[in-house]
Structure formats: structure tokens, C-alpha cells
Amino acid sequence: MDEQLYRLRTSCRVCDAPDPVIVAPLAPMAAATPTFSLPGTDKTHPAFTQPVPLALALCRQCGMVQVPAIVSADLNYRNYAYRTTNSLGLPEHFRAHARETIDRIRPRPGSLVMEFGSNDGTLLAAFAEQGHPVLGIDPARAIAEAASRRGVPTLADFFGEALAVKLLASHGPAAILLANNVIANIDDLHDVARGIATILAPDGVFVFETQYGPDVIERLLLDTVYHEHQSYFALTPLSVLFARHGLEVIDVAAIWTKGGSIRVTVQRQGGPRRMESSVPAMLADEARRGIKNPAFFAAFNHRIKATAAALHAEIDRVRAMGGGVAGYGVSVGTCTLLAQFDLAGKIDFLVDDDVNKDPELVGPGYRLAVLPPTALIERRPGLTLVFAWRYADPIVVANQAYLEAGGAFLVCLPEPRLITGAS
């Protein structure tokens, strides 16, 4: 075991209760994914080849769901490769987010907007267009430099209390602090919460979006489960976290991103804004659903096994007829599905629309070629598994020639769905 690659957490990262119970024992997978970049190394690095334990653990005390194996943050994010602009629909979502947040919060003209985990600055650019000075914080050096060059000043650093103290002195307080699809990636949530409490203006708000844990479980959003995502939040444990640091949740809304997420608004305890009815309503709903009960996860585990069996049966049928098998979509979610459905040894090659993707996807025990979608016509696999299942409809539309030539698509999630030329 490579001690530098990961460590195991044995307590809840929200309430510090010992020994969260494993409720979803998943297959191990590599720490490295297509969002990963390790300059100066090749794909024999342990990050690509060593399987790291993966499981979901539940804190019975506060309801927090978390991955116990913690991969080094420096390894994960200093050379991060993913960019917001690469995600279909996300730039438009963030522009709408900026307009809605300004209309809802009504910050003073010219007040400072900050974001940690700001990536390429897409969201902050939308706030800058509305006349607000902005500052991004992101540990990925190359991405931070590129964002600064495009006019979104960005510090290449991790956000926490120490940095917040420095920023308060150099830039003043934030009227709006943002974080999108990043808080779930952080192990030390208390350091982040202290940073939030430090940098917020007295009437400021922290607005963040994150994957909604109960949706991951009930909708089988399995491709969002991997080591980068260390937490699967519900509002119940989030309320516990913020209360410990003099903060309070005042609004929450369900949003579409990642198949099921929430947008949460936080202020200082006793701040000027009233708590919206959405907060007690979601807390009551989570209690009704029993999110602190290990039984809540039983159907999730059953559906993983049933889905794997269904995928294997269709692959075996095509193989028996002499057909090949491909996969469509190369992402971190693809790595998850290859591991959890035990598919790596059953796929001949992968295709992806992004011409900038690495020509190989490498993981423990597999090395799969990544080709353009034209390979579906050139190689004629009998079956193509759609790992990028959220984009299945445009994928099918764009590849009608493959279907007309006798190929078939098998959409993996949320349940297997076979698409042929006839259908």
C-alpha cells in the first residue's frame, strides 16, 4: 500500500463521531481519473494503477455520508485538468445562477464577490459582467493562471481559515462567497467553515451548490461516486456543520446539475435575512426518508448488483453472436462505472466527442484506447455502452448511421436501456 496516495478517515468529518458505518461497500478504483494530470509521470504511477478502497460510510449521529479513503489534495488538485466550460449546459447554468443570486441577495453595487474552487472563472465572469469586483481561489495552478489571463483574478491556493484572514486584510470582506461542486471534495470542512465565517461581510452570504446525497442514493447516480467526492451532503448534516461555526442555513433549492443537487444559502447566525420555508421543509423530508438509517441504502446496493447483471447479460449475448463492445464517454464517472459494474475486461475500446481527451484510459488492470465517435462506423461494435448517460439522447441522434448499420446503444444508468435502429 502506498501511504502517500491515500489515508483512511475513522471519524465523521462533520460532527467528529467515531466509526461511521459502511452502508455501501463498493469496488476499489484508481485515484487518478480523466480529471487528473500528473506532469512528469506516466500511466504506471500508483495513482493510475493502484486500486484505492471505495465505500460510502454513514454517521448515525448527524447523517453525514462520506468516503473514508482520502486521496491527497495536492495530488488531486494542483494539476487538475477539468474545466467548467467542458461540461454541456454548465456555463449557461452558471450565468443564470449569477443573475438569480444578484436578484435574490441584492448586494450593494460594487461589493466584492469571491469564489473558492472557481476553476476557469466561468461563474465569477458572470458576476463581473454585473459590475462586481471578483476574486477566485483555486489550487489548480494552470487553471488559475488561465482564469487570471481572461480577466478573472484567481489565486492558486486552497481556501481555509488562514487564507481567509489574509484575504480579509488585503481585499476586505465578501458580500457574496461562492463555491460550486467543490465543498464535497474537501476533507477538512471545519477549516473551510472557519474561513467562511472569517471572510463574510456582516450581511454577506455564502451560496454553494453540491451534489445532494439522498438523490445519489435514491436515483442511483452511481457515476458521481469516486474518491474526489469525499462527501454526499444532505441538509441535516450541513446544518450541524454551519451551526458549529456561527453560521446558519437560510435557504435551499433543488437544482438539476449532476442529476440532483442543491443550492444552499448561508449567513451569520442572527444575520439580516430571514430563513425561508424551504429549509425546515427539506429537514423534515430528510427525517421522513430516514437518511440516518442504514436501511435507506439497501435498495442502492441491490440496484448496483442488478444493473451489473443486466449489463453483463446483454454484453454476453452480443459476444456470443461475435460482436464487439465499445463504451461511449470518457470521464471520471466512466472510471466509476467500469469498476462498480466490473466492465473493464468486457470493453474493446472507448469513444468520446472531445478530441482533446487522452488517447488512453488507464486503470487497475486495464488500458483502453480512446477514439473519436467515427470508430463506431469503422469498427462496427455490436454494442456500445453509454457511460455518458445524461447525454444519451444527443449521442443517439448524432450516431444514427451507427444504429442504421446494425449497432446498438446500451444506456447504463439510471437503469439499463437498449436502443437499436428499430427502436
Kindly summarize this structure in a few lines.
The chain is of the alpha/beta class. It contains 15 helices and 20 strands.
> What is the name of the CATH superfamily of the largest domain?
Vaccinia Virus protein VP39
User: Which geometry do the CA atoms define?
Assistant: globular
Structural class: alpha/beta
Which residues sit in consecutive blocks of at least 5 with pLDDT less than 50? none
Q: What is the end-to-end distance?
A: 48 Å
**CATH class of the largest domain, please?**
Alpha Beta
**Order of strands in the sheet with the most strands?**
8-7-6-9-10-13-12
Summarize the helices and strands and which ones pair or pack.
Blueprint: E1 6-8, E2 21-29, H1 46-49, E3 52-58, E4 65-66, E5 69-71, H2 73-77, H3 90-105, E6 113-116, H4 122-129, E7 134-137, H5 141-149, E8 154-155, H6 161-171, E9 174-180, H7 189-199, E10 200-211, H8 213-218, E11 231-232, H9 235-243, E12 247-255, E13 261-268, H10 278-289, H11 298-320, E14 325-328, H12 332-340, E15 349-351, E16 360-363, E17 366-371, H13 375-379, E18 383-386, H14 392-398, H15 400-404, E19 408-411, E20 417-420
Parallel strand pairs: 6-7, 6-9, 7-8, 9-10, 14-15, 14-18, 15-17, 18-19
Antiparallel strand pairs: 1-5, 2-3, 3-4, 4-11, 10-13, 12-13, 16-17, 19-20
